[in-house]
Amino acid sequence: MSRARGEGCSCGRAAPARSCCLCGPAVLLALWALLAAGCSRSSGSGEPAPSNPPAISAVNPLAGEPGTPVAIAGRDFETRPQRNLVFFGTVQAPVREATAERLVVEVPAGVRADAQVQLSVTTRGGTAEGPLFTAHAPAGAPEITEIRTEAGERTIVAFPGQRLVLAGSGFAAVPEQNEVTIGLVPVNVLAATAGALTVELPAAAESGAVAVRAAGVPSVATAGEPPTLFVAGGAASSFDRGGVGKAGAELLGAWPRTHLLVEIDVQQDGSSADWSPSAEALAKLGTRLGERLFKPGGITILQPSTFAASDRSWTEDEVRATAFAQRNLHSRGNTAVLHLLVLAGEFAPNEAVIGLTFASTHIALFEERLRDASSPLTLETAEAATLVHEAGHVLGLVNLTAGMCVPHEDPDSRGHDIERDCVMHREISVRRVPLGGGPTDAFDPNCRCDLAQAGGRP
After folding, report:
1. pLDDT per residue over 180-233, tens digit each?
2. Residue 285: closest CA among 264, 268, 257
3. Is 173 within 8 Å of 179 (Cβ atoms)?
4. Is the sign of the CA dihedral 51, 85, 228, 325 positive or negative?
5. How far is 283 from 294, CA to CA, in rounded Å?
6. Residue 435 and residue 407: Cα distance in Å, rounded?
7. CB atoms closer than 10 angstroms to residue 268
8. What is the pLDDT of residue 14?
9. CA dihedral for 309, 315, 318, 322, sign (positive or negative)
10. In the prediction, which pLDDT does 394 show?
11. Domains of the chain in sequence order
């Protein structure tokens, strides 16, 4: 939780100025007894997860067309092929052979051509990034350039069972001659022309790069990043509504959640104001998440949607109910979804609150209150600091589910950093030059160590 500087808060008793009162179950950052249990990495199969992350020592070859076998030497790989998640950039590759010290994979269809992409291997023990790989385009390679709904609207998000149109070039005119995959999951092709394929997502669909083999020739991406479709769930799960920090391990690591979406719903209160966070603040949130999370399939922040509500004062229960009602996308399979609810007005139990984390993948931002309290910082800086701060709680900081490398939790404010130049301090800095000279939206070395220890990037 974040609050405006210099304002006291009360939980039925006086609170000293500059403290960050934690009022109510949501603001208490969930049930502490539950959080203490941590997050299990068991596969449910009876086999223990590897105790060490994998390591890559050699890759051969370092260039090739889709379909080319690639040998990856190293250690601590999983011996079941399907438990090794191998990515060429944002495109997952099929694993054909697996031992603890060697994997044989194929360069995947849909990979970005004639550009160096990061090769990575994820197991239940963690993620290793190897050398850069260069994929080459085969002669006559088809290409998917855009994903559309049946109504013709561009999209990157869909649900199982939904029909989509893949626009591009070089497709076979006979549907059966086009083999479409999303990630590693085959997709049924219903209709085909040389420039468009109509497909239907199966129940087993998961997020991934969209690729096609047209008459046996694999597609590549030549105009930029490969098109990725995020397949979300339509119903809430315990993963999304658990205690604060409970989703941290799966958000930080790539197993089993290789993709991350951020959905944003913004209140329209009947005034002329647009309460959407700035593009600069959302970009900064994406940058900070990318620095700390292993998400080889990609991190995408969606454009905000709006909903009408005249409320100007929000209780904890109202915030929770509104978020649950407005949220459309839910974590599912290999995809985690973080929901951001942006509200006008103020938090009724404590008007100083500008940010609130109240469930495992739920954040609320009191944008109007934040704008009132942002000076002398720029609005963009204050927004970014608040968003990154609340995301830190979602990831388990400070000492929620992400254990501390060294003690740095504020004894007077549970869940917050004692260092004032860290974004996880209980208050957002309101100085033009943040304390310690660092950016107000940055995790300090202690927080970065905590996140790396919990499964995130070093």
Report:
1. 999 999 999 999 999 999 999 999 999 999 999 999 999 999 989 999 999 999
2. 264
3. no
4. negative
5. 18
6. 20
7. 15
8. 30
9. positive
10. 98
11. 2-30+242-453 (3.40.390.10), 55-135 (2.60.40.10), 143-231 (2.60.40.10)
